[in-house]
Design goal:
Structural class: alpha+beta
Strand order of the largest sheet: 1-2-3-4-5
Low-confidence stretches: none
Helix content: 25-40%
Oligomer: single chain
Protein name: Type IV pilus assembly protein PilE
Transmembrane segments: 12-32
Shape: rod-shaped
CATH topology: Glycoprotein, Type 4 Pilin
Radius of gyration: 25 Å
Order of helices and strands: HEEEEE
Number of strands: 5
GO cellular component, one term: type II protein secretion system complex
Mean pLDDT: 90
InterPro entries: Bac_GSPG_pilin (IPR000983), N_methyl_site (IPR012902), Pilin-like (IPR045584)
Number of domains: 1
CATH class: Alpha Beta
Keywords: Membrane, Methylation, Transmembrane, Transmembrane helix
Largest sheet: 5 strands, antiparallel
Length: 145
């Protein structure tokens, strides 16, 4: 009588491996998305805070924010808007140059990633619903940062 030894994996063993990999992926993807969201939001906040420091330096030298040229550049997942709180650009003839507002709008596909607002009056807030953010506050559902 010849005894045959099986070589390879059974279907059950392969299915167990597939289930284990699926569980690992189900845990890893949301965790990675949360990590990317946190990194992008941190970069946006850092850019806004750096810009606010530059704005205050400019006002200390010129006694106004009029004709300030923004140094804000693109951060992945965000576009920035710098205006006075009436909505005029600081280089506009209509601006008073007495205040400013920076909005970082979430442009990523991640609806959980927040948009941010910082103003010369000290307002710092975020909201996942960009439509709620105005030049002066973040509206309903806002959080401070």
């Amino acid at each position: 009588m010849i005894i045959m030894r099986s070589k390879g994996f059974t279907l059950i063993e392969m299915m167990i491996v597939v289930v284990i990999v699926a569980i690992l992926v189900a845990v890893a993807i949301p965790s990675y998305q949360s990590y990317v969201r946190t990194v992008n939001e941190g970069r946006a906040i850092q850019a806004m805070q750096n810009e606010s420091v530059l704005l205050e330096r400019y006002k200390a030298r010129n006694f106004s924010y009029i004709n300030y040229s923004s140094a804000l550049s693109g951060i992945q997942g965000y576009t920035f808007t710098l205006t006075d709180q009436a909505g005029n650009t600081l280089t506009s003839n209509n601006t008073t140059g007495s205040d400013w507002s920076i909005i970082a709008q979430n442009t990523s596909a991640d609806s959980k990633q927040a948009s941010f607002l910082i103003t010369s009056n000290g307002t710092r807030c975020k909201n996942t619903a960009f439509s709620n953010i105005s030049k002066t506050d973040c509206g309903t559902g806002a959080e401070t940062w």
